[in-house]
Amino acid sequence: MNCDRIQICPEPFSWATGELTDPAAGALAVFLGCTRAERAADGRDLLALQYEAYEPMALRQMHDLATAARRRWPIARLIMLHRVGRVELGEPSVLIAVSTPHRNEAFEACRWLIDSLKAEVAVWKKEIWSDGTESWVHGEKP
Amino acid sequence: MNCDRIQICPEPFSWATGELTDPAAGALAVFLGCTRAERAADGRDLLALQYEAYEPMALRQMHDLATAARRRWPIARLIMLHRVGRVELGEPSVLIAVSTPHRNEAFEACRWLIDSLKAEVAVWKKEIWSDGTESWVHGEKP
Amino acid sequence: MAVRVRLFAAIREAFGVDALDLDASTVEEVAEQLRRRCPSAEPLLARSRFAVNRAFSPAQTPLLDQDEVAVIPPVSGG
Amino acid sequence: MAVRVRLFAAIREAFGVDALDLDASTVEEVAEQLRRRCPSAEPLLARSRFAVNRAFSPAQTPLLDQDEVAVIPPVSGG
Prior knowledge:
The complex is a heterotetramer, with two copies of chain A (142 residues) and two copies of chain C (78 residues).
Chain A: E1 5-9, E2 27-34, E3 46-53, H1 55-72, E4 77-83, E5 85-88, E6 92-100, H2 103-120, E7 123-129, E8 134-137
Parallel strand pairs in A: 1-4
Antiparallel strand pairs in A: 2-6, 3-5, 3-7, 4-6, 7-8
Chain C: E1 2-6, H1 9-15, E2 19-23, H2 27-37, H3 42-46, E3 49-52, E4 55-56, E5 68-72
Parallel strand pairs in C: 1-5
Antiparallel strand pairs in C: 1-2, 3-4, 3-5
């Protein structure tokens, strides 16, 4: 049995280093993805991102990713959180955190989990712009 | 001028995600190194690590690493903390945290900073074992 | 088969609803009915995958009564 | 030149002090005096680098009065 925390969060999430510490874990790697300020070619400014998830499927996919990561790396503890709703500039939308015996595997697992989550998990973002326009992101931004 | 936090800490350190957030930063990568439980071949258990630093030189080296990292990656904010004194099992001895526009550069900068710190910075650890013995680590552990 | 079709993101906004009840025996039949109902969504439907009961499923997947079919346009989480 | 020599970790414990005042005109002369004073530390001294005024400096580096010379055995932070 493990104590992974995997959640879709309608409100800003919080977490603490203490959730990851474990006597067997010499290394903790954490990634947070945040809403980044952006200006469109026509001068509009990004105000916020609005996230939507197919929650039961997204949670199942996140659990599957955690299981796959645990098969590949000796993970002591794992946190995977994704916001839904409006995420303002500078605020986090996603958190991946893992602890492992050594640092190489912590970096590898953390990187693999965020890359896989972005590629596969049923979550979508809509850009909300300063002129009132909104646009869904479907596929990689250029 | 930047707002890097670079410290040698005689007491347990604390930090918050908020120190790293920045509208320009879409990615935060954090690494923590902690004392990991270990059993020697002869059955002794590791109890703790005791860290010592040549503080003015270590701080200068850490600032130099931050400057080098900022030349190489578009870092918004940076935290680099290292404990001195006794660090119990599971407790963090080192923290590296960076925020950047995109995730690839955050992972790269974080990884480069911890690798460089471990290879170069004037800090030493002594292992404290359950039988009362102590041994300095000078050079890579096998 | 009476199936529930879940719609998300730009697909949801194109259809103006977040779910539809359809009668279909395969995923492909669901896709076909969606294209007919909202031709403007066709380009994005063509880039979308389908999930049956929360797992990605190919077009020929047979459906059972009460299955939940979801249209999954290209994801953009993170 | 009157220089202050700082000792750390296993080197410090081998010498029993964390600093020495020596008279030397190069880093190499400091190393030579340390080897003579504590032969048991020689293997670790051979694997150590030296810093003058907090910057790594090669053996031939000339010293000035009041310089701070540090012996830096292989580091193990992190």
